[in-house]
Amino acid sequence: MRIALFCHNYPPHPGGLEVMAQNLARGLARAHDVVLVSSGWEGAHGKSLEGGVIVHRIPAIHLTERFGVPYPVLLGPGLHSALKAAASADVLHAHGALYPSSMLAAWTSARSQKPLVLTEHVGFVTYRRALLNAVQRAAWIAIGDRIVRRARIVNALNTRVQGWLQARFPELAVRYVGNGVDTALFRPRATGERAAIRRRLGLPADEVLALFVARASEKKNLDAVLDIPRQDHHLVVCGARRDLRLPGVTDLGLVPYARMPDLFGCVDVMVHASAGEGLPLAVQEAIASGLPVALLWDEGYAGWISREAVMACDSLAEVDAAVRRLTASAESRAVLSARARAWAEHKWSWNETVAQYESLYREALSRTDEPCRKIA
User: Lowest CB count within 10 Å: 21, 27, 231, 250, which one?
Assistant: First the structure.
């Protein structure tokens, strides 16, 4: 097959969606011709061949990035050739119903009469600021609804998002394909290796280290994590340029993805307090690395992970208590670490995830009785 992928951001832009899109694209490229259209970021623009994938990075405006809301608007040179390449594909696959990149995918699908597959990652995210919620509602009405109805197949990244989409679009059969994880790359480390990694990263050698990984966004709830007393642990933060200077905190800023397996391998606990997520890939990678995870639970996670594989928390107050318990007890960490690693080894595989997407593409191509609909 010839497959065209559209995602609003792509590495080197940091984030879990970016890594997911890259893993999927490279997995598909082992057996198919894959082209990917995304936004440029910090000097990375133009066309390149990466891991068997032809990547078109279009210059873009990233104005909302400062508010923790990634919403690049693609414009500038390279857009015409990227869309021409995408139009020659057999099937198009867009990530996220609200993004300009997905609008371009839907437009290209309608113009070329090629089927569109849509993966929705988060559905509707409730922010603390009413203005963001109002803008999001308007965006779903003006953009998201049309793109969802344009797609031949709609897929969700967790069962909460699947249920939300199914309720909003009862005429559709919303699918569910979860992400894989590389359990050979993300794995537990021996004591000597952990110590060496800590030295390289400039982390405390003898303290219990709790890790927070997330881009800058209010829904990540970093403030609540910083409020957890640190008598029994040292907090390591990464994922954005924050320049935190607080007692008991090391801010690593933006850590290259290639170094994340080492970082996961040398800490003791992960804390993830985000709301409105699909299932963060960083959480899966931490679990595969054998980390006990204090996780703010989302009902949608249950389709892809057991509450028993993490320390599931139903409120931020419970996250606080879970972090204190895990950082104070080596025995609790060891029990949950073994349980987490076993879950990842038995349940998650990028090869299986790629195969499920291939099945969705073949189904979209086979439904010749259903013409590609125009965008209303």
Answer: 231
Residues 149 and 169: their CA atoms lie apart, in Å, by 8
Facing residues of 176 across strands?
Answer: 156
Determine which helix (DSSP H) or strand (DSSP E) holds 293, and give its type and residue range: strand 293-296
| Cα–Cα distance for residue pair 266/24, rounded to 1 Å | 27
Strands, E assignment, 109-195: 116-120, 153-156, 175-176
Shared domain check, 48 and 111: yes
CATH number at residue 301: 3.40.50.2000
Q: In terms of Cα–Cα distance, which of 189, 184, 179, 194 is closest to 345?
A: 184
The number of domains in the chain is 2
- List the structure tokens of 305: 């992970």
How big is the CA angle at 270 (ends 266 and 271), to the nearest 5 degrees? 155
Q: How many CB atoms lie within 10 A of CB 358?
A: 16
Range of the domain at 316: 191-347
Closest by CA to 341, choosing from 277, 260, 238, 265, is 265
